[in-house]
Amino acid sequence: HPYFSYKDLLGFFILTLLLSLLVLFSPNLLGDTENFIPADPLLTPPHIKPEWYFLFAYAILRSIPNKLGGVLALLFSILILMLVPLLHTSKQRSAT
């Protein structure tokens, strides 16, 4: 039992030492080079690809030039999606 505890502590200290050396002496070694590209606020960088489930939001926000109008349109579209199940008034039930 004590041998396993000493082994675990030694492994923990060695890994902590290696991680500390990596972080302190070469912090950009594992970094992404695209983080150093100067930002252009008028252009979305080409390496940023929207996820498929956010495409409706991107389409709404980019189609309306006014920021407040785009945000309101996005909120109303989400509100409509939330209200659709409440509008189901059919009395028919499934068999299972």
TrEMBL record:
InterPro entries: Cyt_b/b6_C, Cyt_b/b6_C_sf, Cytb/b6-like_sf. Residues 1-96 form the Cytochrome b/b6 C-terminal region profile domain. PROSITE patterns: CYTB_CTER. GO terms for biological process: mitochondrial electron transport, ubiquinol to cytochrome c. It is found in: Mitochondrion inner membrane. The chain crosses the membrane at residues 68-87. It is a multi-pass membrane protein. The keyword Mitochondrion applies. Component of the ubiquinol-cytochrome c reductase complex (complex III or cytochrome b-c1 complex) that is part of the mitochondrial respiratory chain. The b-c1 complex mediates electron transfer from ubiquinol to cytochrome c. Contributes to the generation of a proton gradient across the mitochondrial membrane that is then used for ATP synthesis. PANTHER family: CYTOCHROME B (PTHR19271:SF16). This is Cytochrome b. The lineage of its organism: Eukaryota, Metazoa, Chordata, Craniata, Vertebrata.
